[in-house]
Amino acid sequence: MARSGQVTEGIVRRFYADDYEFAISRLDGKAYATSNYCSHLDCLLSSGKLVQDGIGCSCHGSAFDLETGEPICPPATEPIKTYPCEERDGEIFVGIDPTEPPEGPRRRRMRSA
After folding, report:
1. Which of 5, 22, 43, 76 is deepest in the core (most CB within 10 A)?
2. What angle do CA 28, 33, 37 make, to 5 degrees?
3. Separation CA 60–CA 43 (nearest Å)
4. pLDDT on residue 107
5. Residues near 53 by Cβ (< 8 Å), separated by ≥ 6?
6. Which residue intervals define the domain Rieske in the entry (predicted)?
7. pLDDT digits (tens, 9 = 90+) for 37-96
8. Distance between CA atoms of 55 and 62, rounded to whole angstroms?
């Protein structure tokens, strides 16, 4: 998925794997993987920054818990998707459930339905 050195402490980066798009970050030495889209208005979380124990959205200030995806700061009220993340041999691996579709922009999906 990503090399460990690509995701330094306190940084959020965007990564792709097939149709999946992730925001991968590192906080207190641990790597985390979430959906790359804020549940409030689909802003890219990889454009945001880490705040306290979460990932912050640069558009309207929402923040989400890195472990659970639950919103910890409004205006977002819906959680984001989180993925299991493991580091080994200098690589970051993200676990996905192949039966679940890739998480993408929710509001755009609702408008086109």
Report:
1. 22
2. 120
3. 9
4. 56
5. 27, 65, 66, 72
6. 1-94
7. 999 999 999 999 999 889 999 999 999 999 999 999 999 999 999 999 999 999 999 999
8. 8
Strands (DSSP E) contained in 8-107 are: 12-17, 20-27, 30-35, 49-51, 54-56, 63-65, 71-73, 82-83, 85-88, 91-94
Whole-prediction pTM: 0.88
Residue 22 contacts residue 95 (beta carbons within 8 Å): no
Structural tokens at position 18: 């097939």
Decide: 46 and 56 in contact? Cβ < 8 Å: no
The Cα–Cα gap between 94 and 75 comes to 28
What's the pLDDT score for residue 58? 92
Q: Per the structure block, which two tokens stand in for 30?
A: 């641990």
Containing 100, the helix (H) or strand (E) segment is: none
Does domain 2-101 fall under CATH 2.40.50.140? My reply is no
Q: Which run of H or of E encompasses 112?
A: helix 106-112
